[in-house]
What we know:
Largest sheet: 2 strands, antiparallel
Low-confidence stretches: none
Mean pLDDT: 83
Radius of gyration: 26 Å
Strand order of the largest sheet: 1-2
Number of domains: 1
Helix content: 40-55%
Amino acid sequence: MSLKDDNTIKQIVSEVHSSQREREKTYRERALKLFPWICGHCAREFDGKRLRELTVHHKDHNHDNNPPDGSNWELLCIYCHDNEHSRDQVADAYAQGPSDRSSDDDFKANPFAGLGDLLKGKLPE
């Protein structure tokens, strides 16, 4: 990759991050005006410097769905917000069902077969 390509990629990434921060700033500021500064899950209160730990969670997970009344938002602390998304990932993994790699035959082997003979001092032939 050339230096020009590397600079172009860095510029694009920078613009995407900047755009995301601007978008977040608008709905976050609106949410902070609409709702009390309390985490919707753990009920911790936030103010001052700690206010930055309070995030806006989109209930439908669509960051472009930002109704003016805030009905798609809830304020969550960074820990509860992370937990919320982790639970969704686990639920999605379970919803997909078992993977195709495993079969019932995988569980028919008995790892303890012959253990009784070994404990009685009989060596396998």
